[in-house]
TrEMBL record, chain A:
Keywords: Cell membrane, Membrane, Transmembrane, Transmembrane helix, Transport
Transmembrane portions of the chain: 25-46, 91-112, 124-143, 155-178, 199-222, 228-248, 255-277
Pfam families: BPD_transp_1 (PF00528)
Record-given protein name: Trehalose transport system permease protein SugB
SUPFAM superfamilies: MetI-like
Family the UniProt entry places it in: Belongs to the binding-protein-dependent transport system permease family.
Gene that encodes the chain: sugB_4
Domain of life, per lineage: Bacteria
InterPro entries named in the record: BP-dep_ABC_trans_perm, MetI-like, MetI-like_sf
Lineage: Bacteria, Bacillati, Actinomycetota, Actinomycetes, Kitasatosporales
Sections of the chain in a coiled coil: none
From TrEMBL, chain B:
Gene that encodes the chain: sugA_3
Family statement drawn from the similarity comment of this UniProt entry: Belongs to the binding-protein-dependent transport system permease family.
The keyword rRNA-binding is annotated on this UniProt entry: no
Protein name (record): Sugar ABC transporter permease
Annotated GO biological process: transmembrane transport
SUPFAM superfamilies for this protein: MetI-like (SSF161098)
Residue ranges of the region described as Disordered: 1-24
Main location: membrane
PROSITE patterns on file: ABC_TM1
Subcellular location: Cell membrane
Any single Gene Ontology cellular-component annotation: plasma membrane
Key words, A-Z: Cell membrane, Membrane, Transmembrane, Transmembrane helix, Transport
InterPro entries in UniProt: MetI-like, MetI-like_sf
Annotated ABC transmembrane type-1 domain residues: 97-313
Amino acid sequence: MNRPLLAPRRPGSPGTRRRRHTGTLLGLVAWLCGIGFFLPVAWMVLTSFHSETDAATNPPSLGAGLSLHGYREFFGAGSGISPWPPLINSLTASVASTLLVLLLAVPAAYALAIKPVRKWSDVLFFFLSTKMLPLVAGLLPVYLVAQNTGMLDSIWLLVLLYTSMNLPIAVWMMRSFLAEVPVEMLEAASIDGAGLTTTLTRIVAPVAMPGIAATALISFIFSWNELLFARVLTGIVAGTSPVFLTGLVTSQGLFLAKVCAAATVISLPVIAAGFAAQDKLVQGLSLGAVK
Amino acid sequence: MPIRTTEPAPAAEVAAVDRGGDPAARARRTERARNWARRAPLLPALVFLVIVTQLPFVATVVISFTRWNALAPENRGFAAFDNYRAVFTDPAMRASVGTTVLLTVTVVLVSLLLGLGLALLLDRGFRGRGIVRTLLITPFLVVPVASALLWKHALYNASYGLLNGSLTWIWRLFGSDDPPQPDWMTDSPLAAVEVSLIWQWTPFMMLILLAGLQSRATDAIEAARMDGASAFDIFRYLTLPHLRRYLELAALLGTVYVVQNFDAVFTITSGGLGTANLPYTIYQTFYQAHDYGRASAQGVVVVLCSLLVATFALRTVSSLLREEVTR
């Protein structure tokens, strides 16, 4: 969106020219900031394509030849441990909990946004307040229960916990997306004699679908990123990618190219998803309060 | 939240309706049925959350009053406030409270200011704005553990990290073979954690503030400019008041997440050299010292502190919500 903030009042006047120069300069500053913030990520990717010796040089070896050594090591071709079980665990936990989140959040958000129950804002705030409490405070009882029921080191325990972690945000997001369905449309539908199913599939779903997608995406990202629960509650069998990533360094010493390759591969799904849904991401992360 | 079963009541009412057909009772019955139909979709989510988040916390409160160390299972019993006394007299715990506050305030404030600057830059049109925006949000999208590892090993490392590597390179440009090679993580461990978190959270602040800037009414700004207001006046009297809520929201949401940070502290310094924050301290008490009673007491204290922040956060969100409702 190019808003003409620099709309010229009198074209060609010295003031306008000066303002145009300032505009170019500020654009340049913005570019420099963008590159500066991106630089560590670029460095991570570049290092991941270096050989271990080229990765660990001082000064940095920018011109060194590219190598897939780090990636081969990460995927377990050399002496490395295979990353596939953790990657699959992460995928299972994130996808399953995201599905469960949607299953619970969509009806709840429907009750809160379209057919508001009484005291709906209180209910909404209850959801939010659970998100504000530090997760670490409930970790011990969960650990003890899991230990006694044999759920320790099981991916399904993580699925339950990730669902509870993401459900409050999902309800908030979904509510704000569903609130965008115009009331007039719903009334018109009910006058025309549309039943609940028709209303949901024909009117609510089309408006809410991008919102549901964004909610799913954010839920997926948070589950994929989670470390504390996964580290405490899983072990050999159900360890997720972040746990695997922390283990790469401590167990085998440091192989910089390999660690960078691992970090790149594990971050890639989140980065791709985030790029695809930049705008919805903002709305979701601010709990629907920012449009 | 008490969940009552209403089975007996409607049954009795159905009987009453069948006997005589009291219209008031029928109206009440349909009203109640409609209320339940409205509430029903909400219940699974509510029940799930209560079971998975509230019950464990209640258990935490109970355990916090017991003497319970997994390494000494026979010595277990009621401890009254001993754990809390230990928490409040423990210098390490007090230090971690200080660290948490310092870490959170620094990260949130700096990333908020940087985010504001970047949002203002991005709010104006320039060539390649979409690309710059995408570049800027990338740090937020890197998996937190990955970004912590990246900072620790690829950037901060004293012998081959990018920071010292760049210093060597710059010094060589000027013909010197003796560049300064500070050990960033040992010299200023907390700052090292903070910088990585600021890098990660600035994009989040920027995104929210940018959305705030773009929801500004342009006509007031146009009018002010017509009247000859300077750019600074427009920022001071129009933009900033409009942004206030968004600044509050960004700060509070950032606080909620940064207070709970575990990944960066765990990965970059392992809580060493005065960087242990509350989540990390609890993790240690529970996972390494196996002192369940004390870890729970710490957890309860953290929750009480978080409630303070949360109250403000909820109030801000609620004011935004009211605005939405009255619109």
